[in-house]
Design brief:
Order of helices and strands: HHHHHHHHHHHH
Largest sheet: none
Helix content: over 70%
Number of helices: 12
Number of domains: 1
Amino acid sequence: MNMQQNEDTLRGFGFALSAYLLWGFLPLYLKMIDHIPVLEVLAHRVFWSVPVAGLILLVLRRTGDIGRVLRDPKALAMGCVTATLVSINWGTYVWAVSVGRALDGALGYYINPIFSVFLGAMLLGERLNRLQWGAVALAVLAVAYLTYETGSLPWPAIVLTLSWGFYAYFKRSLPIGPNQGFLLEVLILSPVAIGYMVWLGAQGGGHFVLLSFDMWLLMGCGIVTAVPLMLYANGAKGLRLATIGIMQYIAPTMIMLIAVFVFEEPFGHARAVAFPLIWAALGLYTYAIFRGRRA
């Protein structure tokens, strides 16, 4: 059944707001483990997401589709694609926060909805109006200006935008719900994650030391990864597209504020021009959504 949500529900708003707030505060958590190598953090994000996501689906009684998809080669192959893309996204974001480039993370997630509109036009044949093309042009101009002024491409923002945009695009092809799809993805990634963790332990270089603070933080990676994604998946079902379009600015705004005022990352002249260009693009994008609904 393919229906568009025509009205907002309090339940949907609560789920979505919780997800965006958790994503907004995530840099604070990641900063506490910035002394741990990115690949180790990523392996634990995958490994500990499995029991969290599995338990939630067991409680909701929605585990039946997983077995069917695991026996479907085509669906399993698509699951491998989305799993690869989401792991690239997670790894890039963890790295960006750990090396003091959380602002690039905020920029990437600001650009993402505009890139998704562009992706729809290029791959799905969706027609863009002048406002939407204007939003795309402003986003490109912002990245070009930032690259020119700083002398280097803000590649973490680009990788985050591309990986999440294509992840959302390919995830449409998975024949299961988003919650089940997330469990499928972390199950696919688990053998690699476990293999790396075992190898790391054998080398004596891992940070997962029994009853240490790092142990609890690494185990908590499963909760901070799985819970927001599953909250969002349930919230999106109870909200209009226009509401989701506005709410998705919450997380990157929080990330930006934390980066500047908590992590004390330099904002600089280049970003002082590029970010307002992105905000103007998002304004056009949002106005296009509302005008489309009125039409």
